[in-house]
Design brief:
Layout: H1 6-19, H2 32-51, H3 57-79, H4 86-105, H5 118-127, H6 129-141, H7 146-159, H8 170-185, H9 195-205, H10 211-223, H11 230-245, H12 261-286, E1 291-292, H13 297-309, H14 318-328, E2 329-330, H15 339-347, H16 351-372, H17 374-385
Parallel strand pairs: 1-2
Helix pairs in contact: 1-2, 2-4, 3-4, 6-8, 11-12, 13-15, 13-16, 14-15
Length: 386
């Protein structure tokens, strides 16, 4: 049978209390420090012996989980003594070391969802102190959106050592440590304008399923929809959804009571995709048949550029022109034109496209001359003959 080795530590505490630990001469414990170290060492030996025993895994899980809870109760009891005697500080330190020992060597039986002792929480924050300070300085200097910055700063404030017990689990503390170290290693202050995008991606990879971060990502995605048509919006939504699927799966999570960030964000994207597809379908049913053009999208965009440069559009913005053309015309290779694709070709017209359009215009000019200025055509012909 597996024994409860914490019984020895409880006896130590009772002996301290019964003697009145402020007394310089402990009647029962001649050397309290040695007794603490010996008791904790016996626990390590008992755990190691349990691993090599014939006990089944489910019994070992209950055994180690029971010890985790016992250590938490003892540690929080010790933390409640003010002022705290040196022997109690040593005991609490050794209890934290026991937790690290169990997590390192018996990780398969470590309950990450158990509530961590307050002293363990304080120890994690103290260990990360320098990294947290430097990371906060990086956030202040980097080109990061204020709303995104607030998401992280509020998280850091929440994870600081509590004045009253908040019951953080080991999982949440492990996650906090991983997030701080990985963000600190990014050197966001030196990332320039890419800092915001890099931070967004890293928090998504780390499964930072904070509700404020989800709202931020939704708002940033909606900004991409500004001044574009529904087809282009659908392309953006599908691209965002595809990018989520490429992210590696992670067992880490900010809040285990909520679904993972990718699940929540992809769920929102799926709703937006469905709504956008319905709008596109309604518009397709409502619109009349489009006028087909014997042009490519690039050639059409070049003609629009010439019209715009020559001020042939009266009181119309390019956005309205692109939307109108995409709704009412189709090219020889693309029955469905998006305003976004027209805009892209409009601003990236090259020499090859311009040469084709120039040839079309020269043919048009020749046709005008033949149809409306035949005398001039005859004179030009005679001039070239002679």
């Amino acid at each position: 049978m597996l024994k409860n080795e914490l019984y020895t530590i409880n006896l130590l505490i009772e002996e301290f209390e019964s003697d009145g630990f402020c007394n310089d001469h402990c009647k029962i414990l001649v050397n309290p420090d040695a007794a603490v170290l010996k008791a904790c060492q016996s626990i390590r030996e008992a755990w190691s012996a349990a691993m090599f025993s014939v006990a089944p895994d489910h019994s070992l899980s209950r055994y180690f989980h029971y010890h985790q809870e016992g250590i938490r109760e003892i540690s929080d009891t010790l933390s409640g003594f003010v002022p705290q005697p040196a022997a109690f500080k040593l005991l609490n330190k050794e209890l934290i070391a026991l937790i690290d020992f169990q997590q390192k060597f018996f990780g398969n039986f470590f309950n990450q969802d158990a509530v961590a002792p307050t002293a363990y929480h304080c120890n994690v924050v103290e260990r990360l102190g320098d990294a947290i300070i430097l990371l906060q300085e990086d956030l202040g200097k980097a080109f990061i959106d204020g709303q995104l910055k607030d998401c992280l700063l509020s998280y850091f404030e929440k994870m600081m050592p509590p004045g009253e017990r908040k019951g953080f689990t080991f999982r949440s503390l492990f996650y906090f440590e991983t997030l701080v170290l990985e963000l600190h290693a990014m050197n966001l202050a030196k990332a320039g304008e890419a800092a915001n995008r890099l931070l967004e991606r890293k928090l998504t990879e780390l499964n930072f399923n904070q509700i404020d971060f989800l709202i931020y990502r939704q708002q940033q995605t909606r900004l991409l929809f500004k001044d574009i048509d529904q087809i282009e919006k659908l392309n953006i939504l599908n691209a965002e959804n595809a990018a989520l699927k490429l992210l590696p799966r992670s067992s880490m999570i900010y809040d285990s009571d909520w679904p993972s960030f990718s699940v929540m964000f992809s769920g929102w994207l799926a709703e937006e995709i469905t709504d956008t597809e319905m709008i596109i379908q309604r518009e397709a049913n409502y619109l009349q048949e489009k006028l087909p053009l014997n042009l490519s999208v690039a050639h059409l965009a070049c003609f629009l550029k010439l019209f715009f440069d020559e001020h042939l559009f009266k009181n119309s913005s390019l956005k309205d022109v692109f939307k109108f053309m995409s709704r009412n015309f189709e090219t020889k290779r693309q029955p469905v034109i998006s305003a976004g694709s027209l805009s892209k070709e409009f601003y990236s017209t090259g020499q090859v496209t311009a040469a084709v359009v120039r040839d079309m215009l020269q043919k048009m000019v020749a046709r005008i001359d033949r149809s409306f200025f035949p005398v001039l055509v005859v004179i030009a012909v005679r001039f070239f003959v002679y």
